[in-house]
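Readers of this paper often ask what the protein records in our data store actually look like. Such a record has a labelled line for the sequence and another for the backbone structure tokens. Nothing more is needed to write down the fold, since each code stands for a local backbone conformation. The remainder of this section carries one protein's record, kept here as part of the documentation.
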Amino acid sequence: MNVAHNVRRGRTFFPDRPAILFEGRPVSYRDLDETSSRVANVLSAMGIRRGDRVALYVPNIPAFPIAYLGILKLGAIAVSINSIFKAQEVAFILNDSQSRVLFTTAELDEALGELDCPALERRLRVDRGLHRLIDPASSEFRTVEMEANDPALLLYTSGTTGFPKGATLSHGNVVSNTWSVVHHAGYRPEDRLLLFLPLFHVFGQNFIMNACFLAGSTLVLHQRFVPDQVLESITRDQVTMFFGVPSVYIALLNLLDSPPPGSGEGWVGALSSIRYWFSAAATMPQEISRRWTERFGRPICEGYGLTETSPFAAYNHDFRHKFGSVGTPVENFEIRIVDEDDQEVPTGTLGEIAIKGPGVMLGYWNREDDTRAAIRNGWFHSGDIGSMDDEGYVFIVDRVKDMINRSGFKVWPAEVEQLLYTHPAVKEVAVYAVPDAESGEAVAAAVVLRDGQSVTSAEIIDYCRSRLAVYKAPSRVDFVSELPKNPTGKILKRVLRERAAQQPAARG
């Protein structure tokens, strides 16, 4: 077993098909297999062996999958590092993982400067001189066979509440998970999958890239989400499957009313090649999902999972789709809703989502206490609050840490956000807690308005008070030009809380 067997399979059946299409330049399955084998041979010559850690501090360019597959072929462990991290953050992960080699780009490498990382032996620039390094190496390499429980990947959590932890995913975790993705989402060899989500993140890496290679499909790779460029690529490259997070779909809905460049038609016609839409990584507001379905005649399929579950754990099926749900557990997974004593709660009752299945990580790298706290009796405790209906469909309410305690009453930000998305002036919104001397915590909202729209904070508050219990309505509304997001598109409520503490509320 080895995650990298996917590319050998692709080469066997589709040697000349583009495995990757990047800025109009194809990389065939034959080329991907041979180039990644050269990387494996070079690493082997450096003394890298099975179980050694090799880090990737690389943006969304073809060098990422090439180096990644070479690392895995050798039986080493690929350590993914967020490409927007700075030197101190990179050094922490390199030291925590004890990585011996770092793949990066010239630009990123120069910004790092000197690093105090005793275990690090080599820094290899993938955009300058890589081919001079690997071309002399053999294009043949016998992929090392691994056991299901052998570590394959270290994917570090975002670290918003402390130092990041390395979720350790095994070859068995990733192989089983990507097979489930291909089965449930229905990837086909002739499909072209759009990927602008970051490759260092589990969503882009496993759900899209690794599953794409398993299916023998083509990965249409972008460095980031730039709406006009992405929409043009969909038409030019005949993309058939689209993957995003809720903020991406919100941005697209606001863009789709304008005609594409050089065309009198709307963007909807330009998207006709896409047969499948998918969203994950954050809760999709029901209003956004409904608007999208009304416009395109088919829903955005949704899934659920976390870095610690490889990530795919639940799927909202296209043949039986329920608005507002992330679906039912995928094959060989179990999900239950539990209380603070880990006891299962009655149907429809809120509790923490616990997950059991072949995608659950081995644990956090060198963090036994954190692992024991997260995985209890084989069940991974997600930190997400939700409920389950009588057909096994899971509905996520919010993250435990995002819950607002207002005078002893629980306020779930997602509920308030769902309502605010129905307001005609609201383009995007985030609801979060701010300290309050009287109630402990108060409800705050950061709102991005639609172009040409105007509304006051008092009107937003009244809109909520007339439709929700008064204690759930925001007492503070700030109008902002954009919401802070991480590279996957998740809204950073931590940043909003920090900003709110530094400035008085805006009044409209």
Observations:
- The CA atoms of residues 232 and 262 lie 11 Å apart.
